[in-house]
Amino acid sequence: MLVFGLCSIDYLVDNQTKILKLTRNIFGKKLFALLMEWTFFGQFMVREEEGKILEGLRKLNERGISPMLAYTAPELHGSVDGDGASNEPAKEQWYLNNFNSVLKSFHIAAKCYSFTKTRPIITTKVTFFVDHSLLVLLSSVIQQQNALLLHNNQLVDSFISKNPTWNTRSKESLKNDLIFHVELNKMIHSERYENHSPTKENEDVVKLQDAHLNLFEKLRGRMDKLCLTAQQTNLSLNFDAEQTYLQTAIEMLCIHFQRLYNECAPVVLNTYQCYLKRTGDVIENHVTLAKQDGFCFGGKIVRGAYIDEERRLAKEKQTVDPVNPTYAATTSMYQRVSEFLINQVKCQGEGRMRVIFATHNEDSVTDVLNRLREKEINMDVGDVSFAQLYGTRDFISYTLGSLGYPVSKMVHYSNPVDGLAYLSRRLTENRSGLASPEIERRLPVVELKRRLFERRKNI
Ligand SMILES: Cc1cc2nc3c(=O)[nH]c(=O)nc-3n(C[C@H](O)[C@H](O)[C@H](O)COP(=O)(O)OP(=O)(O)OC[C@H]3O[C@@H](n4cnc5c(N)ncnc54)[C@H](O)[C@@H]3O)c2cc1C
């Protein structure tokens, strides 16, 4: 409670770096690390040691909470916005280290099968494995080409005549396929080269240069290895949702790997942010696509973590704000999406979808449980589950777990120094996400238990 109280004091949050530095100078490195592990770090994260991670997950499992593991990458010092070429080797090493560390996390999570039957989840970020500028570029190329496909019906025909193996897919399916877009980009630009005269329609499409294509292949190879490892170790792999200027590419990468690895079970999971105006339509589109193309839908449903940045960027660029205008509109989106997905889980039958409602909001949890009861969904199968962050809103997770509902805690792990830097960023970006001592103190366990228990009896 002391930690939550401190996190809610603006002065401490604004001056956290100075305060942490001062505390380290006073106590010395070793004592400081211990102090942090007993307080801030220990509250929200677990030390990057296999034994400690498994001990933490086992303790949660004893309270009915399933494993969800997230490796936390250290900060990339001075390289992200640095002077380009000279930093490239350092960046590449960082992506490679992250890739190897996430790969290792599968082997740790697979050991959870010694104490749990629920399929553990690994959560990670695509920006751990490639420069975010590539994802920005891919996102804008996809948007440009999809706009072109709306008006130019011959483009797909011309593409298929040159690439007959794509013949079996619908136009909607192609529009949502990142590999198709990369190949289409090559065709558009080679035609321009051959004809020496770009048509008016395609002259604006940005060209993916060889360097971009090489980076893309590297990313594709890394993600493929992670998805394959998830399948081989019988785990689920969830990719976080990030800022909208990256999301078009991230979503389509996930769809690409779902097509490859979700044929029999939902191994790869996308993430959908309900604070975005477009999310309801995107989810409906992806579920339709999954049914048409014969793969299992998997998605983590969140409200969204980058609201201030999204709003600031829309204002600066004078573009339409992608975020819902009010909190109530975000909550209605959460309700629309949960109703739609729970109906789909019912229609598609057991084992074909995996949906995780990741929220700290008690009303959303009870609303979802209500819908599950109405549709008589068998909660023991695990097609639908809940998730909260480690150290946050424990009363919700523990209550759900004690009543036998499927629930996970997302456990971030790292070394204490990198972990503190990560927590400090999260606290600055999203204060309400971590710090709400009123809610944590309220602990309405009895009331929550009563509400949920009523529903458990009826499911
Ligand atoms: C297990 C887990 C995994 C997560 N993974 C991701 C992820 O991959 N990507 C990601 O972006 N986030 C992720 N989050 C964070 C999540 O998106 C939310 O920021 C956080 O959980 C708070 O939302 P809530 O539903 O828990 O609670 P609430 O407190 O009910 O909702 C707060 C949220 O409502 C929205 N909101 C607030 N004010 C307004 C407003 N004026 N207008 C419109 N909307 C508003 C914002 O999204 C804000 O974060 C994750 C959270 C959890 C628990």
Automatic annotation (TrEMBL):
Known role: Converts proline to delta-1-pyrroline-5-carboxylate.
Keyword field: FAD, Flavoprotein, Oxidoreductase, Proline metabolism
GO cellular component, one term: mitochondrion
Cofactor: FAD
Name recorded for this polypeptide: Proline dehydrogenase
A Pfam family recorded for this sequence: Pro_dh
BP term (GO), one: L-proline catabolic process to L-glutamate
GO molecular function: FAD binding; proline dehydrogenase activity
Gene3D superfamilies, A to Z: 3.20.20.220
Class of this enzyme: oxidoreductase
PANTHER family per the UniProt record, alphabetical: PROLINE DEHYDROGENASE 1, MITOCHONDRIAL, PROLINE OXIDASE
Pathway info: Amino-acid degradation; L-proline degradation into L-glutamate; L-glutamate from L-proline: step 1/2
Species of provenance: Helobdella robusta
Family that this chain belongs to: Belongs to the proline oxidase family.
